[in-house]
Please model this.
Amino acid sequence: MARSDRLLRTAYLLTHDWATAEDLLQESLAKAWFAWPGIDEPEAYVRRVLVTTYTSWWRRRWRRELPSGDLPDEPAPGDAGRREELWEAVGRLPAKQRAVIVLRFYEDLPVAEVARLLGCQEGTVKSQTAKALAKLRVDESIVKELHR
Amino acid sequence: MTVQDLRDVLRERAESPSPANPYRHDEVRSRIRRTSLRRRVTAGAGAVAVIAAGIYLIPGTAAAPDRDTTATATAAAQPAGLPERFTSADGTEYRRLAITTLEVKGKKKTSINVPVSGKPLEVSGRCDGGPRSDSPAVLVNGRPIGGADSLRCSKEMPLVPLIVPRGATEVTVTFDTTRLRPGCVRRTKDSPCLPVEARPANWSLAVYEWTPPARPVEPPQIKPFPDRAAGMKRAYTVRGMWPQDPSFTLTATSESGKIGIDQLCAGDLASRMWFQFRIDGKLSPSSSNCGVWREGRSYPMAVAEITVPKGKRVTISGKMSFLGEYTNRPVRWSVGVFVK
Model:
């Protein structure tokens, strides 16, 4: 039970909305059900379905989102303000970059695992991470684990 | 902004209260039914069985996560090397209950609340330092835990038993790198005694519980002691299995007045066995934990040397004890006695 709670939280980080996160999780669980007999690692499988469903939904339904926003030049007054801006900036990232950020820095998955989940090359994960961090104005020079 | 800020923001947001949905199970079931109809797949009795198998993925409410799988400080982080579940070499299933971190430039002490279901608990940690890096002290409900001090920075995943108060249903486990190292060191004989140099490292720490195997597992065989070690000749070997054989007694005579004694164990929990020896009833300082000879052809251990009366027969008795739980995970042991 706690597993799907965490998946819901991952879904929330991807969608930035609890209702949409619930919808995404339920859709992913339902999809996973059809593959259930052949699943070795249920949680990993559902996470993969969740991420791919999210990116496909984003392509179909959430085109109205404009993933171009960077952090404003003016620094926010306080730490709380900066965190709020960072959170909003994560929400403005394109779907794949947002997924990479969530998987790398919330789920703490290594590059190879993120590449496997997203069905892309490790190099793509690294470049998407770098682009996302640049948009978020996060200093990646201190990220030792970035290329792990 | 740093990556740590990003991690903090993600965790902060993810761990905010999620809306409860007691109907999620039913809603997922409805989705499956609708999809099945769309696919013109007949839902049969087998499907019901598979749904039942999948229930553990489908919670009743997100706001009240299952008590036995959460901890107050459970982070979503899944650092490499601290998997959510794993199976040990002897087939025992481990499940992670809680996870946390300690940082060189950040949090140096952290506590997590861990539910106690009655299954044995263990702590593990991975660090980015080396074998000499400072280890966190481990405390349960504020009291240091014996044995848990052996959590060391290692390439392997160390597992240390976490002994909890009898009858506890929840404990607070604290990891603390701020506790000062005891003692001091002198670089030369006359130089001042300086505190032990700190070697900080970043740690990922987790509490696991394991499910005792349904039947006792068979520990691997122990390599035989060499015929000679530390300039002494092997005279006796005593073998047994913990917990069935918790002690032994033998007699030996050494013409030189030197007796060597050493112990080897096999089994996943082998290093947790503790041997206490008595020579003619007197406690020997050679009491220690058990060595595990995994690889290499030459004997890797150091035989403890005991002085006994020359040419006189002495009685050597050994009593074993065990750190932590061992249900259905026996340990094979062997004690070698060498004489000169």
Notes: Residues 24-38 of chain B form the longest helix (15 residues). The interface with chain A takes residues 1-3, 5-15, 18-19, 21, 24, 27-28, 31-32, 35, 50-51, 53-54, 56-60, 62, 65-66, 69-70, 76-80, 84 of chain B (CB under 8 Å). The longest strand of chain B covers residues 232-242.
